[in-house]
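Key result, reporting period 2: structure in, sequence out.
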């Protein structure tokens, strides 16, 4: 179980940190061309975002330590699942790397044209890091217990090392990697984790007799990948997967002509 927690923690940190690194690297590359004197504001905002994320994680850990029960565990799992569903669907429907880059370009250009350019850039850097950091704290809280803390720390260390290596490679390669398959893979991972956490949340409520428990016979491999061992949890997972299927299959809007020209 500790090894499983370590792998999940590392993957969560890699996925959340990956998106923040891509945002910062793309903005930094743009600023080097348009306004190199403004890069310091971006880094300052990112640093404050990291500090705020650590403070948020510490506050959440302290609060959870004071109120540690199955109900809180269930709510945490479902909240994390909701965030993963939203983020995974968002990334999937915006997997076109040209449109993604164009959106970042428009955001940075708007900041550069504002009266308080350093403040605007700092806010972009802060929100890019803090949004991912805050979500990471919530996701990890859904995985963590006293018994799994060692595995989680090992996973976080591995994930941090992977992010450091990835950052070095991104800077070396000028962020020229295929974003479409990358975003597709990470969005599918998030949706998979959301389905797992929905089942985990239902199980926490079942342990308090808040939800009935009717067992379903499953192969060991199915339970190992997170399929719920109860009909109630399995029904919740199927509802989630059905909604995910609709989102993934829903046609995207056609690009706006002006945006297409910008791309």
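The corresponding designed sequence is given below.
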């Amino acid at each position: 179980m500790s090894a499983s927690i370590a792998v999940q923690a590392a993957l969560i940190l890699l996925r959340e940190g990956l998106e923040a690194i891509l945002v910062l690297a793309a903005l930094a590359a743009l600023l080097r061309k348009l306004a190199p004197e403004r890069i310091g504001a971006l880094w300052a905002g990112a640093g404050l975002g990291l500090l705020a994320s650590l403070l948020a994680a510490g506050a959440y850990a302290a609060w959870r330590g004071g109120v540690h029960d199955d109900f809180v565990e269930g709510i945490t799992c479902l909240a994390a699942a909701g965030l993963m569903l939203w983020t995974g669907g968002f990334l999937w429907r915006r997997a076109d790397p040209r449109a993604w880059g164009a959106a970042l370009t428009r955001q940075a250009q708007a900041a550069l044209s504002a009266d308080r350019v350093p403040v605007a850039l700092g806010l972009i850097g802060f929100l890019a890091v803090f949004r991912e950091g805050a979500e990471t704290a919530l996701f990890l809280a859904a995985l963590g217990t006293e018994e799994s803390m060692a595995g989680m720390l090992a996973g976080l260390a591995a994930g941090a090392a992977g992010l450091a290596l990835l950052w070095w490679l991104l800077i070396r390669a000028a962020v020229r990697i295929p974003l479409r398959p990358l975003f597709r893979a990470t969005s599918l991972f998030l949706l998979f984790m959301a389905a797992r956490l929905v089942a985990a949340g239902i199980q926490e409520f079942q342990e308090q007799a808040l939800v009935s428990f009717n067992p379903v016979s499953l192969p060991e491999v199915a339970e190992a990948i997170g399929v719920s061992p109860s009909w109630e949890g399995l029904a919740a997972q199927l509802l989630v997967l059905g909604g995910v299927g609709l989102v993934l299959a829903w046609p995207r809007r056609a690009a706006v002509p002006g945006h297409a020209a910008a791309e």
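The chain has a mean pLDDT of 72. The CA atoms of residues 115 and 186 lie 36 Å apart. This case is discussed further under Risks and Mitigation.
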